[in-house]
Amino acid sequence: MSQIRPRSFPGTAVEDLPASIIADILSQSSVGAEYQPLIEVNTGRIAAYEGLSRFRTRQGEPIAPDRVFKALHASPPALYEIEFRAKRDQIAHAPAGIPLFVNLDPDAFAAGGGEEADNPLMGLLSLRNDIGVEIIENCSVTDSRLSLAMLRRLRGLGVRVALDDIGGGDSLISFAVLAGIDDMKIARDWLDRRDDPVAQRLLSALAGFARDTGKRLIFEGIETLEDLAWAKRQGADLVQGFLYRPQFVTWQPDLPIAPIGGPNSLARRRRSELAWAHERR
């Protein structure tokens, strides 16, 4: 089987993230983590946690994860290195006794060896028997090929697989990947389309597909009780979002902490807390 390689991205980082900041991150041995609960809609029980990366400079200033990962795509080896550290730390510091989901970048998977038996990223997933992987696809045929290769490898390990951010603005749905996953994660974008009858029909079709094929339906971006009630009406099995912020768990490596939030802050300016919560990874 020919090896699928990671894509090459332009060197300009999103929002002009300085190279010095990427160098700062690469010089750190660990990556912080935030664990957001996935809640069963019928019981209110935590069914799993999703581990997300939380980056800081050595001065303690937070950096939006999407900015970091988009910048790292310019260098597949650097992307792989940070993805390995992030997954290692997310697995090591996760709450005990509850299943864990982690996001895995298909390009990092390819940079680590793809479907080869000695891919270190796949070795990390063997450290727990209750771990799941969320695949993120973007608008690229190459993404779909990488995702399918990763899905085959994960299936060989017996890992539960979810397709993340379905219906998000930058998402791509591959039929082969959709057919092979266990869980469907519905992007928060659908909350903004809840009054659109065409969007509602499409969402109903997706929910019906999940129900008919035995896949769990997970709704992201739940902020209010009204959001929760709407998700229940759509057939949600699990939900997550800032409505459950009191149950978030965080871990950070020891770093010097300095005051943050000045005019040159690297953190994304937020429309709401939800914007930060959904800087995925």
UniProtKB/TrEMBL annotation:
Gene3D superfamilies: EAL domain. GO terms for molecular function: cyclic-guanylate-specific phosphodiesterase activity. Transmembrane segments: none annotated. The lineage of its organism: Bacteria, Pseudomonadati, Pseudomonadota, Alphaproteobacteria, Rhodospirillales. Pfam families: EAL. CDD domains: EAL. This is EAL domain protein, diguanylate phosphodiesterase. Residues 15-261 form the EAL domain. InterPro entries: Cyclic-di-GMP_PDE-like, EAL_dom, EAL_sf. It comes from Magnetospirillum molischianum DSM 120.
